[in-house]
Amino acid sequence: MSDPLSPGKTRAALRTSARVSLDMLLVLLMAGVTLWLLGKAWSVLWPLVIALLLTTLTWPPARFLRRKGWPPALAASVVTVAALLVAAGVVVLISVPVASQSGELVDGVVNGIQKLRDWASGPPLNVGDDQVSKGVDAAVGRLQSSVGTIATATLTGVTTVLNGLVTTVLAIFLMFFFLKDGPRFLPWLTAQLPGRLAVDVPVVASRSWDTLGSFVRSQAFVGLLDAVFIGIGLWVLGVPLVIPLAVLTFVSAFVPIIGALFAGFVAVLIALVSNGWTDALIVLAIIIVVQQLEGNVFQPMLQSRGLGLHASVVLLAVTLGGSLAGIVGSLLAVPVAAIVAVVWRYVREQLSEPAAPQPDPDPDPDPGIVPDPVAPPEPAV
């Protein structure tokens, strides 16, 4: 027979479990309230997040100019203008070749549609012209019946674009002020906080900033790898618009999952209308291989090394962020997880017991020195 349970130990275990459960409920409640407040202030926080991400990219040249003796305002202005010129150059690099070859692309699209129609009219589908006409009429009728929905969606899209422009302008101004006054932020924050917070918060903020910079640099490197490998594949196959497609691949790498799908879709479509089905399938295979290597090998390895996170944590963070908040959640999941890890490590440092001092062992005698022999006692007379 097994020994009976001790009533005292059972009550103590239940009290401990109840106390831990209550503490966890309070923590979860506080986390839920914090997330609710962040959601209410998201229109202000989103430009702030974008500005911080942009500042991590533009701070190294600004820091270089400041070390050369440039005034902070002048260095921030020059770097901000240079960043805007680079962004405009990227847009021109994409739009000018597309505009110059737009006629060829349109002809390719028309020919591709005609080839698809000819293929559908033969076996095994045997789709005739009358069936195509019925399908077109049905699509037009469906479109006419959905005018209200389309107008609402268009209005929502216009509002989204306007909000995006406002967010971009605000983020650029915030980036300028971060570049100009960023080094003075931590001393100011230290002076504003009372007691222990004046030490803890600046340390956590400094470590979080370093972590955010590592994330942006690793993401940029992964995007560069994607652009180079996919660009080489497109160039070997003779697909037009190689440089715009490579630039688009690099830029879209900063938007996880959706960006890669969009850039891959554009590359496959252009290969289809310009080179045909065979090259389009080869391009699709190249993109799938590169994206699999990027998502499962390069990105987890680089981010886990730069952010101090295991590769599995990176993958789980992106999955959880995408399921909770879509594209924005996927974009912010990894840096948020890294910052949480920074805070957790700092809390563990502060709560850890200091190691007990160990007594120094007796130093070993120098092996090169031979001690003097002990003289034997003199015999008694």
From TrEMBL:
Task: Provide GO CC annotations from the record.
Answer: plasma membrane
Which residues are listed as membrane-spanning?
20-38, 44-62, 74-96, 161-179, 224-247, 253-273, 280-299, 311-344
Pfam families with a match to the protein in the record = AI-2E_transport
The way this protein sits in the membrane is described as: Multi-pass membrane protein
- Tree of life domain: Bacteria
Which key words are in the record?
Answer: Cell membrane, Membrane, Transmembrane, Transmembrane helix, Transport
Q: Where is the composition biased (Pro residues)?
A: 356-381
Q: Where in the cell is it found?
A: Cell membrane
Q: Which InterPro entries match?
A: AI-2E-like
> Where does it primarily localize?
membrane
The keyword Cell membrane is annotated on this UniProt entry: yes
Which Gene Ontology terms describe the biological processes this protein takes part in?
Answer: transmembrane transport
Region of interest (Disordered), residue spans: 353-381
Q: PANTHER family this protein is in? A: PERMEASE PERM-RELATED (PTHR21716:SF53), TRANSMEMBRANE PROTEIN (PTHR21716)
Concerning its family, UniProt says: Belongs to the autoinducer-2 exporter (AI-2E) (TC 2.A.86) family.
Q: What is the official name of this protein in its record?
A: AI-2E family transporter
From which lineage does this chain's organism come? Answer: Bacteria, Bacillati, Actinomycetota, Actinomycetes, Micromonosporales
